[in-house]
Amino acid sequence: MFAGSHQLTVDEKGRLAVPARYRHALDAQCQSQVVITMGYEPCLEIYPAPEFRAICESIVQMENREHAELLKRAFVGRAVECELDKQGRISVPTLLRRQAHLDTSVVLVGQINRFELWAEDKWTAMYGEGPDSILPTLKDAFRALKR
Amino acid sequence: MFAGSHQLTVDEKGRLAVPARYRHALDAQCQSQVVITMGYEPCLEIYPAPEFRAICESIVQMENREHAELLKRAFVGRAVECELDKQGRISVPTLLRRQAHLDTSVVLVGQINRFELWAEDKWTAMYGEGPDSILPTLKDAFRALKR
DNA sequence: TGAGGTTTCCCCACGATTCCCCACTTTCCT
DNA sequence: AGGAAAGTGGGGAATCGTGGGGAAACCTCA
């Protein structure tokens, strides 16, 4: 289960050092094999490989064929399989980096079954120190949650 | 079950000494593994790790997808797993401390299944010596409570 | 087919941060 | 008053994030 956010830098070679605390889990869960792709948010999504395959299954079995086709093109079609190198880094494909408008300063966010990779400025603007804009909705969301 | 409030200090390295009376319970309940994150109040929330995981389950299964997404980013995305050190302290991440506007003087408040960590001035202003502002609502709340 | 250039991967190194351990001081209980 | 437990502080070692160099693999174009 992934949680937490880390400010990281993508170096000149497009490499991203995965925080050490996640490496062990990723190794155990998927032999350090991950899939990077995009959803509808302006950020990259990083899945452990088995998790991604499970989502593909779900897409194939969708009732709504039109939705399924769209997801196959936009979600599956943009996916790239990667592997952590021996130093625990993944090299993020240039195309995806451009599509998500990532420069060197990024934020890696744990999202339970996946990670999201945001441009730092976008992330801070939306969920950072002063997330005043989302506060009312957030309050509603918390109240809808049993805990 | 956690109750009561303690005035504590966060030292220069961002460490918080958990009152000894809670340590046994935390050790028994979660091997001293806790998760620190933020809700919509300007304070930090500290959960025993299993408690936090249970909440994540609830989030994943929420009906309202928009709420679930928001909670995943704001609640899960800001969470940090910590472990009490051998001296019974947790080191509170700098980012979270800044977001909750904590300086050295804080109040740890037992909240049944979690703790809350408030900046002392905020806590005293809201629930401290003169809680005049909340008194009418408090009255309603008590009357709604069977006891 | 071969040469040049580019990309990818691995290793090493440095600086900063984090974590762990030890010690001191204060408080509370006996 | 004495002792034990708890809160507080600091020093040192290990780890982690980051950058760069070099070798191997790949692709392109002649």
Cα shape of chain A: globular
CATH topology of chain A: Chemotaxis protein chec
Class inferred from helices and paired strands of chain A: alpha+beta
Order of helices and strands of chain A: EEHEEHHEEHEEHH
Low-confidence stretches of chain A: none
Distance between the termini of chain A: 18 Å
Number of helices of chain A: 6
Would you tell me the overall average pLDDT of chain A?
92
CATH superfamily of chain A: Transcriptional regulator MraZ domain
Beta-strand percent range of chain A: 25-35%
Strand order of the largest sheet of chain A: 1-7-8-4-3-5
Report on the biggest sheet of chain A: 6 strands, antiparallel
Percent helix range of chain A:
40-55%
Which second-level CATH architecture of chain A applies?
3-Layer(aba) Sandwich
CATH class of chain A: Alpha Beta
- The number of domains of chain A is 1
Gyration radius over CA of chain A: 16 Å
Structure write-up:
Two copies of one chain form a homodimer. The two termini of chain A are about 20 Å apart. Chain A contains six helices and eight strands; from the N terminus they run ββαββααββαββαα. Chain A is about 40% helix and about 25% strand. Chain A has one domain: Chemotaxis protein chec (3-Layer(aba) Sandwich), CATH 3.40.1550. Chain A is α+β, with helices and mostly antiparallel strands. In chain A, the strands form two sheets. A six-stranded antiparallel β-sheet of chain A has the order 1-7-8-4-3-5. Chain A is globular. Chain A has helices spanning about 20-30, 50-60, 65-75, 95-100, 120-125, 135-145; strands spanning about 5-10, 15, 35-40, 45-50, 80-85, 90, 105-110, 115-120. Chains A and B meet through α6 of A and α2, α3 and α4 of B. Chain A binds a DNA duplex (30 and 30 nucleotides) through loops.
